[in-house]
């Protein structure tokens, strides 16, 4: 069973993403858990085991007749809850580059990733290098 995205789904997905930013921007683990629990209550249904398309047994966190937006919201909420409870609530954050507002999930082994991409990491390294060089009188 595949969900087809309809025009009306766009508005619902945008509404969910507005709620999702509260997960990303939660200041504490406790706040993040509260927001995630709200999303789970609102969007994820009790899990069910299915093999609807012959791809093997797997879990669904949505009603069988759920539309695209509801499926996306339920699956995202459930997957985030699983990942963050297993790997750590701090594993989702904003990029450390001041001018970047992207959020990312830290899949690194030690959980110390600071930047959303290598590009942002490199840009920040160049900025820090230039700032350090300016303070020592070194020429670029």
TrEMBL record:
Q: Which Gene3D superfamilies match?
A: Jann2411-like domain
Q: Name one Pfam family in it.
A: zf-CGNR
Top-level division of the source organism's lineage: Bacteria
List the SUPFAM superfamilies hit by this protein, alphabetically.
Answer: Jann2411-like
Q: Which InterPro entries match?
A: ABATE (IPR010852), ABATE_dom_sf (IPR023286), Znf_CGNR (IPR021005)
Sequence ranges assigned to domain Zinc finger CGNR in this UniProt record:
91-131
The residues that cross the membrane are none
What protein am I looking at? Zinc finger CGNR domain-containing protein
Q: Which species is the source of this protein?
A: Mycolicibacterium fortuitum subsp. acetamidolyticum
